[in-house]
Design brief:
Blueprint (H helix, E strand, L loop, with lengths): L3 E5 L5 H12 L2 E7 L3 H13 L3 E6 L5 H14 L2 E6 L14 H26 L8 E6 L3 H4 L6 H21 L4 E8 L5 H7 L1 H9 L9 H12 L9 E5 L4
Parallel strand pairs: 1-2, 1-4, 2-3, 4-5, 5-6, 6-7
Length: 247
């Protein structure tokens, strides 16, 4: 089964890498986007191809409009874009009393701006009123949008909250154009980036508050995303799906 071309931003590591592999196994031809780590993206492609799937690594910085344009033009050369996973994002410690405009811009650019403008490019290609055949957009949000985030992560939580609102609005705007839009909101997930930024003690404290008593794995989030991309979720749009182990 071939589902079409799927663009996954930040596809070289963590949730993005796991999503690329799971989606390829489900029949998608995956565009593994990365900004700097070419080796990680190449390893993801190699794993997919070894399992019989199709994937292409594409370097592009999606925090710039030029990078987003280049990414989707590269995807066009592979085939019709039918899916987008807005996974690229970032967080940084900055308490409000110490917040600078640069901190603010960095959080909003990496978490909201990239989501909005990648979605724009996807809609331009998928919308039936533009000659497209429809498609699916899945945004990767965060439980922080509900919980408020840890101290120093207020702007991260705010940016992810904006992604929630964008999801609902975009779903209304493009639903009759053949496009579904959903967001998954992971809680604490065991990735190298998360463990490095949180630190062992902070991660232990966060884990203690989780009903299931453990962090989630990237593959668990990837399976949820792959479901939302599939025909099995054909009546789901504007939906925010939490995957936080009960927190």
């Amino acid at each position: 089964m071939t589902r079409g071309v799927l663009v996954v931003t930040g596809g070289g590591r963590g949730i993005g890498a796991a999503t690329c592999k799971a989606a390829a196994a489900d029949g998608w031809t995956v565009v593994v986007n990365y900004a700097r780590d070419a080796d990680s993206a190449a390893a993801v492609v190699a794993d997919i191809e070894a399992a019989g799937g199709k994937a292409h690594a594409v370097q592009a910085d999606v925090q710039s409009e030029a990078g987003i344009t280049a990414l989707f033009e590269a995807a066009d050369a592979i085939g019709p874009v039918k899916g987008l996973v807005n996974n690229a994002g970032g967080s940084a410690d900055a308490k409000i009393a110490d917040l600078t405009t640069a901190d603010y811009d960095r959080m909003m650019d990496s978490n909201l701006r990239t989501t909005v403008f990648c979605a724009r490019e996807a809609v331009r290609r998928m919308a039936t009123d533009r000659g497209g055949e429809g498609g699916v957009i899945v945004n990767v949000g965060s439980r922080a949008s509900v919980l408020g985030g840890q101290p120093g992560r207020v702007m991260y939580a705010a940016a992810k909250g904006a992604v929630d609102g964008f999801t609902a609005g975009l779903a209304n705007e493009v639903g009759k154009l053949g496009i579904r839009v959903c967001t998954v909101r992971p809680g604490v997930i065991r990735t190298a980036t998360h463990e490095a930024k949180a630190g062992a003690e902070r991660l232990k404290t966060m884990t203690a508050a989780i009903a299931l008593g453990r962090p989630g794995e990237p593959e668990e989030v990837a399976q949820l995303i792959t479901f939302l991309l599939s025909p099995a979720a054909s009546y789901m749009t504007g939906t925010l799906v939490d995957i936080g182990g009960g927190r």
